[in-house]
Amino acid sequence: MAPLSGGEVEVGDLPLSLTGGFAGRIAWASQNPVVVPGTLADNIRIADPSACPGRVLAAAGQAGLSGDLDRLLDERGGGLSGGERRRLGLARAFLKRAPLLLLDEPTANLDPASETAILEIVRQAAQGRTTLIATHSAAVAALADRVVRL
Predict the structure, then answer these.
(1) Is residue 1 part of a domain?
(2) Rounded to an integer, what distance in angstroms lies between the CA atom of residue 129 and that of residue 29?
(3) 72 forms bridges with which residues in the sheet?
């Protein structure tokens, strides 16, 4: 990441330069979340390794990940559907208590029913946070207060 050449980036009224930078202030849900060998709970906990099991369970529930959190995953995410991978990224975003939320194509390649389900999850994840979403979906863009088309 390039350093600022001028000005200041603020979250609320706090300059990020005073808060230790960006990394700890951002929750990120990518198109293709990294999956590590371990349980589904372990993979959610990547966002906050100190999170207690109750918080991990709550984040999974908010993201619509039902089922066994002790389910073993391999490094390729074997056993997860495309929608479950998206939900894994969103569960991490829920778990990490960060004021900035970045979402990269949260509904790309999902069928219409799955997209509709993810829309409500995105709406919940964005509450009380500054949220930036990269999307080609008109339905996702409709969630925004402000849309910038590039």
Answers:
(1) no
(2) 14
(3) 39
Averages of pLDDT over runs of 10 residues in the chain (150 residues) are 72 65 80 92 96 96 88 88 88 91 88 87 88 94 93
Residue linked to tokens 């990518």 = 30
* Distance, CA of 18 to CA of 133 (rounded, Å): 25
Q: What is the largest CA-CA distance in the chain?
A: 48
Count: domains in the chain: 1
Spacing of C-alpha 145 from chain mean position: 19
How distant is the alpha carbon of residue 136 from its chain centre? 17
pTM of the model: 0.79
Please report whether residue 4 resides in a domain. no
CATH of the domain at 130: 3.40.50.300
Q: Is 29 exposed, middle or buried (0-12, 13-18, 19+ CB in 10 A)?
A: buried
